[in-house]
């Protein structure tokens, strides 16, 4: 397949491009900078210059592709409304270009926006529908296009997609631990996260494009439940500093913005995903990745 990938040089996107190329697919990657373009070309991918707000480039990339993987997101935590607006506009533009083609359209989102008080299942719909909701209601918007001849596939990522070079949530936890000399967990550390290694996430994206039927929700979850205390203790061992409880009222001062996520349980099941696609995660566990030095550079300025 000729696959158009947004976020092609991002954390998950770069591994996805590698995985698709290894499998014999052709890749066109969206690139907004000279450095991103050069990185894609060095891998053997084709470059389409543009960014998430360049709707003409998105439209062109989707129209000329046999499949679309939408991984880009502004992740503007200081202005989430802008991130949500851009996400909805991008999804709508890409989907409109695919109407009537029955081509696969994979849209990335996260388990972090879904809270059930239990592990999220693939059968659980997102409650976000309106343009003003989380991610602009893009998951449900994309699924609406199934009835219009688009093979929409939703992929929900665990709150941590980990590995060497990760700049996501665990990176911020390690930075906070290094800054304060203590690796913190909130209250008793019984809140839990799911996790997946970046290499396994990339494999799931490829399998989903190749096999998943229209309307599928896939969960990129290799480990369903890891306590936040276990995460903090692994960070403490890796940095040779103590792990300790941080009271909720002190979480913002200790962790920064990541504290609002670390005090939540964000878990999901991938049982249906594995059965549907034969996906078998084989990457390191989160704790082994931390202890193995994947985050040794985090927080070092």
TrEMBL record:
UniProt cross-references to Pfam families, sorted A to Z: Epimerase (PF01370)
Domain Acylphosphatase-like, residue spans: 150-243
Check the record and name the InterPro entries matching this protein: Acylphosphatase-like_dom, Epimerase_deHydtase, NAD(P)-bd_dom_sf, NAD(P)-dependent_oxidoreduct
Superkingdom of this entry's organism?
Answer: Bacteria
Q: Which GO terms describe its cellular component?
A: cytoplasm
Q: Which SUPFAM superfamilies match?
A: NAD(P)-binding Rossmann-fold domains
Please give the Gene Ontology molecular function terms for this protein. Answer: aldehyde dehydrogenase (NAD+) activity
Q: What is this protein called?
A: 3-beta hydroxysteroid dehydrogenase
Q: What organism is this sequence from?
A: Paenibacillus ferrarius
